[in-house]
Specification:
The structure is a single chain. This protein has 480 residues and is of the alpha+beta class. The protein folds into 2 domains: 108 residues, Anticodon-binding domain (Rossmann fold); 243 residues, Bira Bifunctional Protein, Domain 2 (BirA Bifunctional Protein, domain 2). The strands form 3 sheets. Strands 1-5-6-11-10-9-7-8 form an 8-stranded mixed β-sheet, sandwiched between helices. A 5-stranded mixed β-sheet has the order 13-12-14-15-16, sandwiched between helices. Helix 2 packs across helix 4. The structure holds histidyl-adenosine monophosphate.
Length: 480
C-alpha cells in the first residue's frame, strides 16, 4: 500500500551524524530482527489466512472508499513471504528446464469450451467451480481452473507437435476455482507443472513422475507418491469396468451416503474419492479398475513401475486413486505431504491420451502434473535464495553526500550487487536502522571525509566491524 504511515525517524530533521557518534560502542547495531531472519519469516504471511477466508474486513468501515481485504479465498503475498514464493517458482522452472521442459504462458482466461470439452462437464471443477463470465461481445470465457487443457489447445493451435516430439512444456501461474476456502484450498491458487505431449512410452510417464518427485524433495517436501492406472475408454478396459462398478453401486445404493448417490450416473469413479464414511465402507469391497485393465494398459502400467523402481522413485500403489478431471487415461498419480490437514495433495497428474481429440485435434497422447505452490509453501518450503537481494545499504552523512550515495548504489546495482538507500531524508541513525530493515549485510557509509578521500566506510551489519575501502575496490570487496 502507498499510504503506509511514514516511519517516525523519517521526520527527524536533526543533523546527520556518523554512526559511531550516535552513542556508545555498537549503538548502531540493528536491534530489530533482520527481515531475512528465518525465525521471523512466518511473521509477514499475508492472507489467504489459514482458513482461506481472505483478509479481515476493513476496520475503518464506512465511509471508507474501498474494501481493502481481497475477495474471499484469495490473498496478497507480501515480502518477505513473496521472496519464498518467487524462490519456489524459480526452483521449479529451473528444475523442469534441466529435463528439457520449456516455459509456456497461456492466457489467464480461455473460451469456456476449452474446459467443458477438455476437462469434461462431468468433473466437479467444470460443473461447479469455474469462474465463467460473458464478455462485452457475448462470448463465454472462463478463468482457467487448470492448465492442461489450455496447454493442449496451444500445442494444437500452433502445431507444435509438427516440430519435435514429445513437446515438453512447463508452466507456473495462478488458477481459479470457486471452492469452499479452507487451509490449503483457495479460490485463486498457484500451480507449477509440466506437460509432455506426443509420446505413448511408459518411460516418459516415469520421467514426468521423477521430475515432480525430485522438485518436491529439493523444495524440502517429503512427498508420498500414490500411483494407479485407470485404463482407457474401451469396452475391454475402463468402459467395461465402469459397467461393473455401476452395477455394484446400484446394488449397494442404500448403503451409500446421499451425496454420493448422484455420482452413480454422473461419474461413478468419483465415488472412490468420497469423504463419507458410509461410502468409504462400500468402496472397500467395490471392484477395482486394476483388476480389469486390458493387456495394453496392464503392460504399460507394469513398465511404468519398473522404470520408477530403476530410478529409485518409491511409490505406493493405490487402486482407489481416481483423479478429479475427466481427461485421464492409464497412469494416474498424486503426491501427498504431511502437515497440511485434509488438503494434503501437494500435486497430481496423469496421462490424458484422449484430450487432444476432445478438443477437436488429432490423436496426441500426453502426460503431466501440476503441483500446488500454496501447499508447497505451507508444508515448509525453504531455500537459501529466499531473502531480499539487497546486499548493501548506502548511508549518506550530510545532504552533500546524497548524490554520491545514489551514484554508489547505482554503480553497485550495475555490477550485480543489490543496493538500496534512504529516500526519506532520514538522520544517520534512522538510515542505520533502515539499513538493518533492508536485509542487506553491509552499510556503505559516505560523508565529506569519504568523498574527499575517494573511499567509503564499510560496516558489516552482522558483526559491527568497520573498515575503509577505496571506491574502486568496493565492488570486489562486496562480491560474495
Ligand atoms: P489437480 O489435482 O486438480 O490437477 O490440481 C493439482 C494441484 O493443485 C493439487 O494437488 C493441489 O496441490 C493444487 N490445488 C488444486 N486446487 C487447489 C485449490 N483450490 N487451492 C490450492 N491448491 C489447489 C490439475 O490441475 C491437473 N491439470 C494436473 C495435471 C497436469 N494433470 C496432467 N497434467
Amino acid at each position: 500500500m502507498n499510504d503506509q504511515p511514514v516511519p517516525a525517524e523519517s521526520t527527524e530533521r536533526v543533523p546527520r551524524k556518523r554512526p559511531d557518534q550516535t552513542g556508545g560502542p555498537g549503538s548502531s547495531q540493528p536491534t530489530e530482527p533482520r527481515p531475512h531472519d528465518p525465525t521471523d519469516a512466518a511473521a509477514a504471511i499475508a492472507p489467504p489466512a489459514e482458513d482461506g477466508t481472505g483478509g479481515a474486513p476493513n476496520p475503518a468501515g464506512p465511509p471508507g472508499p474501498t474494501e481493502l481485504a481481497p475477495p474471499r479465498g484469495t490473498g496478497d503475498v507480501l515480502p518477505p513471504e513473496s521472496w519464498r514464493w518467487q524462490a519456489a517458482t524459480r526452483l521449479a522452472m529451473d528444475s523442469f528446464a534441466t529435463a528439457g521442459y520449456a516455459p509456456i504462458e497461456t492466457p489467464i482466461f480461455e473460451h469456456t469450451e476449452v474446459f467443458e470439452r477438455g476437462v469434461g462437464v462431468g468433473s466437479e471443477v467444470v460443473g461447479k467451480e469455474m469462474y465463467t463470465f460473458s464478455d462485452r461481445g457475448g462470448r463465454s470465457l472462463t478463468l482457467r481452473p487448470e492448465l492442461t487443457a489450455p496447454v493442449m489447445r496451444a500445442v494444437l493451435g500452433h502445431n507444435l507437435h509438427r516440430a519435435r516430439l514429445p513437446v515438453k512444456l512447463a508452466y507456473a501461474g495462478p488458477m481459479f476455482r470457486q471452492e469452499r476456502p479452507q487451509k490449503g484450498r483457495y479460490r485463486q491458487f498457484s500451480q507449477v507443472g509440466i506437460e509432455a505431449i506426443g509420446s505413448m512410452s511408459p518411460a516418459i510417464d516415469a520421467e514426468v513422475i521423477e521430475v515432480g518427485d525430485r522438485y518436491l524433495r529439493d523444495a524440502g517436501v517429503e512427498p508420498t507418491l500414490l500411483l494407479n492406472s485407470i485404463g482407457h475408454l474401451d469396452p475391454g478396459c475402463r468402459t467395461g469396468y465402469l459397467k461393473l462398478l455401476t452395477e455394484y453401486l446400484v446394488a449397494n445404493r442404500s448403503a451409500l451416503a446421499p451425496v454420493d448417490i448422484e455420482r452413480i450416473s454422473l461419474n461413478p469413479l468419483r465415488t472412490f474419492d468420497s469423504k463419507e464414511s458410509r461410502t468409504i465402507e462400500v468402496m472397500r469391497r467395490a471392484p477395482m479398475i486394476t483388476d480389469h485393465l486390458c493387456d495394453d494398459c496392464r503392460n504399460h502400467f507394469d513398465a511404468v513401475q519398473s522404470h520408477l523402481t530403476k530410478l529409485d522413485v518409491s511409490y505406493t500403489l493405490d487402486p482407489h486413486l481416481v483423479r478429479g478431471l475427466d481427461y485421464y487415461t492409464r497412469t494416474a498419480f498424486e503426491f501427498t505431504a504431511g502437515g497440511l490437514g485434509s488438503q494434503n495433495a501437494v500435486g497430481g497428474g496423469g496421462r490424458y491420451d484422449g484430450l487432444a481429440e476432445s478438443l477437436g485435434g488429432q490423436h496426441l497422447p500426453g502426460i503431466g502434473f501440476a503441483l500446488g505452490l500454496d501447499r508447497i509453501l505451507l508444508s515448509g518450503f525453504q531455500t537459501k535464495d529466499q531473502s531480499s537481494p539487497v546486499a548493501a545499504y548506502v548511508v549518506a552523512i550530510g545532504s552533500a553526500a546524497v548524490e554520491q550515495a545514489l551514484a554508489i548504489a547505482t554503480h553497485l546495482r550495475a555490477a550485480g550487487i543489490g543496493a538500496d538507500l534512504d529516500f526519506l531524508d532520514r538522520s544517520v541513525k534512522g538510515q542505520m536502522k533502515d539499513a538493518a530493515r533492508s536485509g542487506g549485510r553491509w552499510a556503505v557509509i559516505v560523508g565529506d571525509e569519504e568523498i574527499a578521500g575517494n573511499n567509503v566506510t564499510l560496516k558489516d551489519l552482522g558483526t559491527g566491524e568497520q573498515e575503509t575501502v577505496a571506491l574502486d575496490k568496493l565492488e570486489d570487496r562486496l562480491k560474495p
